[in-house]
Amino acid sequence: MNVLFVHQNFPGQYRHLAAALVARGDQVTAIGGPTAQPLDGVLLHRYNPLPAGGVPACHDWAADLQTKVLRAEAVATRIDALRSQGLKVDLVIGHPGWGELLAIKDVLPGVPVLHQLEFFYQLAGADAGFDPEFTRPGWPSRARLRLRRAPQLLALEDLDWGLAPTRWQASTAPIAYRDRISVIHEGIDTQLVATRQGAEIRLERAGLTLRPGDEVVSFVARNLEPYRGIHCFLRMLPLLQQLRPQARVVIVGEDGVSYGAPPPGGGSWKQVLLQELAGRLDLSRIHFVGRIPHPVLHELFRICACHVYLTYPFVLSWSLLEAMACGAVVIGSATAPVQEVIEAGRNGLLVDFFDQEGLANAIASVLADPKRFSSLGLAARQTVVEGYDLASVCLPAQLALVDEVAGGRLPVLR
């Protein structure tokens, strides 16, 4: 079978699926943007989303749509050129959120398309309006968000079948399309991401080695921003340090933004929040480590006394499931994506996203009596092994779905 992946940041979510298709003998091609990365056995082609004459001016509300139309044009032009050179495509797998699939049915008529449906923008009930501190007042912000849905809706009109990683993320799609969405997570390699005896991490700048039994609290996000609760977490720390003065907090993440907006006055959210909290924190026990290698991240999950995961109602992070797979005791926000995975008191603890006192008390309870909560970490790992394991659960289901969609068969909803 000839499979074409379309994703500006290839391989993105498709690393395991693309590798599995190559391994079974399929011809796999990928088209990605300038940042796309090669993958063994995959023929990668890149496109330039910027037109030679520069980006024409447009209405501010339409700027996002224009960016996505430019990507669609660049992708379609690249595919058309490759077809003239002999490219054959039996199935397209892509992420419609970037706009790259908007013209896919025009350049590849009759070829089925499997969409990665990660999140459909909501006017209410999800991330927009969730956090009063950062909600833009007035109707123009709602109008701008409404127009951001336009390319998503256009892409859904061409949907042959959709794939969403969680039930909640699938539920953000319009009702009319939900009967064509399978829920299959990308998968966690639970043989690699697992508990391990003798785990430890070294904090070079602090001259410390941390091991199981130390009062270590971990917090992880790609970027330290409000969407992932950094403001609530940092504002909670003065109380936690009063309750558990020996605790060490390890914060993983970079200073940019992945989903939300940067601070109005410039700089990073970390800088803004640390300035707000100046004089109230013992910074010698708070360790900002930036971005760290994946194996080191797993070691952190193995040695931490508890891991805190906060998120708006938005895309669920892989880091949560990886922490659970490593047996961490997780304290998560009681938001819908997290509640799909964590059942309070069985495989983790939940607190209100905005309840900083409740979060501090929950962490302090775990640090004070880790044996009492150890069963939560064991149950957390079992949750991931049973429902999200790459080799036994997710990858077989993904491959079966690929074959069904490519063969024109109506998949069985999962």
Features:
alpha/beta, single chain, Rossmann fold, 2 domains, 414 residues, 16% strand, six-stranded parallel beta sheet, 14 helices, seven-stranded parallel beta sheet
| CATH-scheme architecture of the largest domain | 3-Layer(aba) Sandwich
Number of helices: 14
The CATH topology of the largest domain turns out to be Rossmann fold
Helix and strand run: EHEEHEHEHHEHEEEEHEHEHEHEHEHHH
Low-confidence stretches: none
Multimeric state: single chain
Q: Separation of termini?
A: 23 Å
CATH superfamily of the largest domain: Glycogen Phosphorylase B
Question: How can the largest sheet be summarized?
Answer: 7 strands, parallel
| Gyration radius, rounded | 22 Å
Q: What coarse outline follows from CA principal-axis ratios?
A: globular
Strand order, sheet with most strands: 3-2-1-4-5-6-7
Number of β-strand runs: 15
Beta-sheet strand percentage? 15-25%
Give the fraction of residues assigned to helices.
25-40%
Count of discrete structural domains:
2
**CATH hierarchy, class of the largest domain:** Alpha Beta
Which structural class best describes the helix and strand composition?
A: alpha/beta
Mean pLDDT: 94
